[in-house]
Amino acid sequence: MTREVPSYPFSDTALAQRLERAEGQSGARFVEARAAAFPESGACWIEIAGTYAMYDGVRSPVTQTFGLGLYQEVTGSELNQIERFFKDRHAPVFHEVSPLAGLPLAALLSERGYEPIEFTSVMYRPLGKGVDLGLFLNEKIQARPIVESEHAVWGETVARGWGQIPEFPDLFSDLTKLNPYRKDAVSFMAILEGLPIAAGALSMSGGVALLAGASTIPEARKQGAQLALLDSRLRYAAERGCDIAMMCAQPGSASQRNAERHGFRIAYTRIKWGLTD
Question: Tell me, what's the pLDDT at 214?
């Protein structure tokens, strides 16, 4: 039997717009879940010039923008509005910017006192019903979406997999409480001999499947749990009409190499800009 070879779309502005919109909308849904679960948090988001600006708390990694300059030209006036949104909430100002937004935007950010603080490889691969993903799975590991009663164990598994992250002390306990309110996200677990050993998440928006948050508990690593989670999430998304999967990783990292081994290509390297004054 001949394996179907999917067609990769070109890494152009149209693709960047789809990928950045998917991640921006996922962030917006996360913020809405925060507002529903913790009304006192003040979590909210706005859209200005096609850019999603999100506030999820002063220290949250979700507090930033996506899509700046990709959907229409951004001027000082729009940046003033976006910066005011964050400063009114005493939050730092961060923008995740695709290089396809163009050099004039980079120059404008530099002029206003921004500095690049982080690089991210944005990766993608095509999906489609019936496409053979070509993954060699450990048959002893079952990966599947969680059921309603498993939110707590899912959160515990994520926490054990990622370990302690001192920058975000409440992240994992909050995820457990936020998940039931997230409308676009599906949480997955990998199970070996009846025990959860890995966990991950999937968000779907505009035909794009965003993979995030996958981790394996230390004692169960190198047995194929991550592959099982990847296969399960990709198949789930393809069955629901997604034609592209995306994930993000630090350039040159093990996560990037693993993604490339399993059909992902680098669409572009994104820069995170931070306002220094």
Answer: 85
Residues of the chain falling short of pLDDT 50 = 1-2, 169
Distance CA 276, CA 237 (A): 39
* Domain total in the chain: 2
pLDDT value, residue 177: 75
6 is a domain residue: no
Q: Are residues 149 and 164 in the same domain?
A: yes
Q: Specify the pLDDT at position 1.
A: 41
Q: What pLDDT score was predicted for residue 94?
A: 98
Provide the residue range defining the domain that includes 79.
Answer: 13-122+270-275
